[in-house]
Specification:
Shape: elongated
Order of helices and strands: HHHHEHEHEHEEHEHEHEHEHEHEE
CATH topology of the largest domain: Rossmann fold
CATH class of the largest domain: Alpha Beta
CATH superfamily of the largest domain: Response regulator
Largest sheet: 6 strands, parallel
Distance between the termini: 74 Å
Number of domains: 3
Strand order of the largest sheet: 2-1-3-4-5-11
CATH architecture of the largest domain: 3-Layer(aba) Sandwich
Radius of gyration: 25 Å
């Protein structure tokens, strides 16, 4: 059996001391550029990979960040993860992502594994009905934690979220300005804090402008469900001429459903999404949406984590990102 390469082998092959090789691999010490390049080139040739767990034990710092999210398959989440990973990896951290699928039990197993293996921090979208003892556990272990999207008021953790009610208010007002009075809210199933806030913003404008009675329809946040839901909406509420959607995937599905029914989206019926995923701009027709730039949102989330790691005693902070109405082709005058 061929033994795996170690630091001694790298140092010997590069013609330097083990201490120098170690400093190069850790990015420490005052090492000349020529020596640094020689050691790194030798490590690559030998396929040497530093034992980060052992390094963490020696330094007391773990460079791996856990990210527990829900519905990793949603393109919004994929773009957020990319933003998180790009920034943290540029700072020398590794990001490991697990999908709790909004299941508190599954989430609990993921968090236990992260704590057991000594992650350096946790980015976390709390599952619906997360028990209070989960928050207590993370506080007891003093794991640097930033909650994302869903905020637990008593958690005591940093939080990055979205100004949800403000965004759906703007979306609903945009449709009202175009002459729509019968506007429905489409998407989501569980009454998460995020969905509650978005529905509240929609209802507020419907009532404030004395529009038609608010209509809220459930739908899973994917294209297939959005397509089916909009067709159900058309059958049940034929007077509705526009929808504010819980996310872009539901909105894109709704557009597909309307097209299959022979309606021209943006002329016969208007649709507003939420997120501004990449597909929103290139869809046919291009989707009007409340843009929050998920990639940049992920970078913001990563930056808050780094700030917490670097300044563990700083006051807990809540960062709420505003959405911007991006008008494209799926909304038009009534």
């Amino acid at each position: 059996m061929v033994s795996k390469p170690n630091l001694d082998a790298v140092a010997k092959a590069a013609g330097v001391s083990k201490t120098t090789a170690s400093q190069v691999m850790r990015g420490a010490g005052r090492i000349s550029e020529a020596t640094r390049k020689k050691v790194l080139r030798t490590a690559e040739e030998l396929r040497y990979i530093p034992d980060q767990r052992a390094a963490s034990m020696r330094s007391g710092q773990n460079r791996e960040i856990g990210f527990v999210i829900s519905q990793i398959s949603n393109p919004f989440n994929a773009e957020v993860i990319r933003g998180v990973s790009d920034l943290l990896e540029s700072e020398g951290y590794l990001v490991s992502v697990l999908d709790a699928r909004d299941d508190p039990d599954r989430q609990g197993r993921h968090l236990d594994a992260f704590i057991r293996n000594g992650r350096g921090g946790l980015l976390w979208v709390p599952a619906v009905d997360t028990p209070s003892h989960t928050f207590d556990l993370l506080r007891d272990y003093a794991l640097p934690t930033v909650t994302f999207l869903r905020q637990h008021q008593a958690s005591g953790f940093d939080h990055v979220g979205i100004r949800n009610a403000e965004a759906t208010s703007a979306a609903t007002r945009h449709l009202a300005d175009l002459g729509h009075r019968n506007i429905a809210y489409l998407g989501g199933t569980d009454m998460t804090s995020v969905r509650q806030e978005r529905i509240a913003g929609y209802r507020m404008v419907m009532n404030e402008l004395a529009l038609a009675q608010p209509i809220v329809l459930d739908s899973d946040d994917n294209k297939m469900a959005g397509r089916d839901a909009i067709l159900d909406l058309r059958r049940t509420y034929p007077e509705v001429s526009a929808v504010v959607c819980n996310g872009d995937m539901v909105a894109l599905g709704a557009c597909l459903g309307l097209a299959s029914a022979g309606l021209r989206v943006g002329e016969d019926f208007s649709v507003v999404g939420f997120d501004d995923i990449q597909d929103a701009a290139v869809a046919t027709p291009a989707l009007t949406t409340m843009a929050i730039s998920p990639y940049e949102l992920g970078r913001k989330l990563a930056r808050v984590m780094l700030d917490r790691i670097n300044e563990p005693d700083m006051p807990v902070a809540t960062t709420l990102v505003a959405a911007e109405l991006v008008i494209r082709d799926t909304t038009g005058a009534r």
